[in-house]
Amino acid sequence: VITESNEVLGQVTIADSVNQVVIILSKLLSFVIAPHFEGEPGRTAVAGLAVVTDKSLGSVLYVSRDLVLTSDVVSVLNAGTPIVCHDAKPLMRALLNDSVDLLYLSLDTAIASYLVNPSRSSYSLAAVSVDVLGREPTTSTESDGQFDFGGADDSVRASAEQAFFTALIAPVITQQLESIHNESLYADIENPLVRVLAKMEHV
Which of 60, 174, 196, 197 is most buried by a 10 A CB count? Predict the structure, then answer.
């Protein structure tokens, strides 16, 4: 059953200080994030992180690389707040190159969607979004639509939309996991394995 989904990405705020990032992140109950890579995902440096600040409003905070890697922001990211991400391993592997080890991944929606439907041909964010929402990010490379967010900001807007769509699919996939009684399999085995594999590939 496809959930009706009409939510749209709202305001994307580009963080301008460590203090702003720390204050905003400290208020969130979970970090739904999407990475922006400088090139190939997981093989190039993280250029920034998009974090959903209000799903109901479609609000996203974009944190550039120089702010992400500060000790204060890393401390907030690793303070115990659950992290939700789609295909988290490339992000975790890339951050390890910057000596940042994300400790609190709670849901990888790509891995969880595989447990829900192992026969799916693709587990990209676009494919999973179509399955559970009936639509995909407009910035997806798999989208037939054209997009233009104004030149250099395209990649920032794209990562923000990826984070927003991750926030939209996360509760649906969690409910699907629970309906087939696979939540413990995910939590006990699959979720911890993401970090383990990222560290193995990093070495």
Answer: 60
Whether the full predicted model's pTM is greater than 0.90, yes or no, is no
Q: State how far the Cα of 13 lies from the Cα of 187, in Å rounded to an integer.
A: 32
The structure tokens 């590939």 sit at 201
Smallest CA-to-CA distance from 56 within 10, 96, 25, 89 is with 10
Cβ-based neighbours of 105, under 8 Å, separated by 6 or more: 83, 84, 85, 88, 92, 191, 194, 195
| 106 neighbors 30 (Cβ within 8 angstroms) | yes
102-152 confidence digits (pLDDT tens): 999 899 999 898 888 888 878 888 888 888 888 888 875 544 333 434 434
